[in-house]
């Protein structure tokens, strides 16, 4: 009898759209879904052995793992992924790739190193560097917290005085600050990359009330069935630069119409993209992951 592969989904809430879709897709693929709420896990190291207890019982081996961990629990998610990788599970995204892509500045550094163009962005830790950042980036200026998602922690300053005040506050609270040149397009393109292939894309447009095009900030999305090839190349290269097998790559146009990568999301929501494209992204993802898990040399990353 062939054993049914167990697929773990790391997610805080079963009722989240993407989590539900993935659980259903695992069942539809003939595998056995296991929902693991990260905060219910206990990791134990002893001599050269590692163990994971879920509730009070040791967890049975899983063939594959799908991380759906939010920004506040990136560290916990990465530690769990390191455990699973050590056990030989095929993880959709690795611990290192998750950590790198959740750091908004380090991830841009990795993109630049891979030859992917990004918006002009400043990172600094002292108020003494603030004025050079503000005068270099011009007005308006976008301030971003180093970690955040769904547009939270991304704000706009219209005047140098507002920018200085905002950056001083961030430096005081976070001991580091990141600021970016404002791109006036009001639209961005989200490209979904899975195992090195573009599988879906959508255009997101900011509402009249906000400069952010995130759907959580009132942005409107539409399908983009004919993604230009240069955008597809950039999206694939961006996912590869961060070591992500599954990624949502956000691209905006510069004033001179060059595509620039804003960020690469390691846990992109399936809700908006499935709604506007009508595609079964969850099913495609689970089938590809199970193929990867059963291949003779599953992709195991540090
Ligand atoms: N430099 C910029 N110029 C103009 N708009 C920007 C800029 N940076 C971000 N935005 C807008 O703000 C939105 C949120 O920014 P960003 O993607 O960096 O934040 P996030 O919180 O990580 O979002 P996500 O949940 O999509 O990962 C973008 O989708 C875009 O609409």
From TrEMBL:
The GO terms describing molecular function are: ATP binding; metal ion binding; ribosomal S6-glutamic acid ligase activity
Q: Return the Pfam families for the record.
A: RimK (PF08443), Rimk_N (PF18030)
Keyword flag Ligase:
yes
- The name this protein carries in UniProt is Ribosomal protein S6--L-glutamate ligase
- Keywords, ordered alphabetically: ATP-binding, Ligase, Magnesium, Manganese, Metal-binding, Nucleotide-binding, Protein biosynthesis, Ribonucleoprotein, Ribosomal protein
Q: Which cofactor does it need?
A: Mn(2+); Mg(2+)
UniProt xrefs under Gene3D superfamilies: 3.40.50.20, ATP-grasp fold, A domain, ATP-grasp fold, B domain
Write down the SUPFAM superfamilies for this protein, in alphabetical order.
Answer: Glutathione synthetase ATP-binding domain-like
Q: Which residues form the signal peptide?
A: none
**Native species of this protein?**
Acidithiobacillus ferridurans
User: Its domain of life?
Assistant: Bacteria
What is one Gene Ontology biological process annotated in the Swiss-Prot or TrEMBL record?
translation
- Recorded GO CC terms: cytoplasm; ribosome
Q: Does the keyword Transcription apply?
A: no
